[in-house]
Amino acid sequence: MKPLLSLLLLAATLLSLTACNTVAGMGQDLKAGGQAITNAADKSK
């Protein structure tokens, strides 16, 4: 379980570093991810 968790954490870190070059860009990416989760939750009601 620990190796899988470590691998997922590393992958998430690498994706966040390559997805955007600035802190503002990272904030926008996180906001978009949160919005997608919210939309999925609303659809499942």
From TrEMBL:
Signal peptide: 1-24
Entry-linked InterPro entries: Entericidin (IPR012556)
Family according to the record: Belongs to the EcnA/EcnB lipoprotein family.
Name of the protein: Predicted small secreted protein
Record bears the keyword Signal: yes
Pfam family, one: Entericidin
Keywords, sorted A to Z: Cell membrane, Lipoprotein, Membrane, Palmitate, Signal
GO cellular component, one term: membrane
Listed PROSITE patterns: PROKAR_LIPOPROTEIN
One GO-annotated biological process of the protein: response to toxic substance
Higher taxonomy: Bacteria, Pseudomonadati, Pseudomonadota, Betaproteobacteria, Burkholderiales
